[in-house]
Amino acid sequence: MAAQTYMLAPDVVVLEREPGMVQCGMDATRVGVLEAHPQLAGVLNRLRIPLTRQTIENLIARTGLSPAAARSLVEDLISYNILWPEPRLQRIAVLGNSVLADELRDALMSDHFQPRTPLHTESAADYIDNVAGYLPIVAVDMLGGAVKWAQALQRSKATWLPVSMLDARGIIGPVRVNGAGPCPMCAHLHRIDADAQWHEVAQRADAAVRPGDPVVRTAVVMHAVVTIRRLLGRPSPPGAPTARPLAGELKEIDLYGMVQHRFVLEHPRCPYCSG
Length: 275
Description:
Layout (H helix, E strand, L loop, with lengths): L4 E4 L5 E5 L2 E4 L8 E3 L3 H7 L5 E2 H9 L5 H13 L3 E3 L4 E6 L3 H11 L3 E4 L7 H8 L5 E4 L5 H8 L6 E7 L2 E4 L11 H11 L3 H10 L6 H18 L17 E5 L6 E4 L12
Helix pairs in contact: 2-3, 4-9, 5-6, 6-7
């Protein structure tokens, strides 16, 4: 098996802060500041192509550090997400045939993901059975299909991430992680608690033509891609949260208001989860 390779995180530039000090990024309140020879900044800034850890350690040692110190520094650079592992293709299941679903698939493919779409011969239950346990499932604009997908997920350990447009807002979540957390019916019932006519509204909206605002849609796609990165354990930029999404986590993207982050519980009346 080929050795793991690393490269400088895409948004990081290493700068000499003052004589004998370098910082890995512009915002010193979020990024690492370390004592080092000024040549180190030049070495790290050249790491835009993937190199093995041993090669990086050897390059750093040429700035005057001992091999042990170079090894320790590389460990820290990886731990603080200043050096990222070279991205490798990851598979993910994506449901949906809306414009949002198509744009999300395109964005994922350009970000080293390989989306897996249901085959024409697969029912909802078959699809879940075939991918659950080894592929997270992203369900795009599926607000009207709560019953079908809740039934399919009932005895599954699948990881399930809904991504939907709700008027001019994007709703990412609630996340179901390895079978834990609210199912699609739980989310549906919570919305019915807020609006008694939600079931009928969701069904009719599914059948309606909604062109949507491409600016809002693009923002939702990008937020979804970052959530999927976190879900699959990819590194975050230095100083950014690194934890994977938790069961029930939901994010509401409102470009005309504010991003809201909250948790949704299993619904006490859900026939698929309450027992």
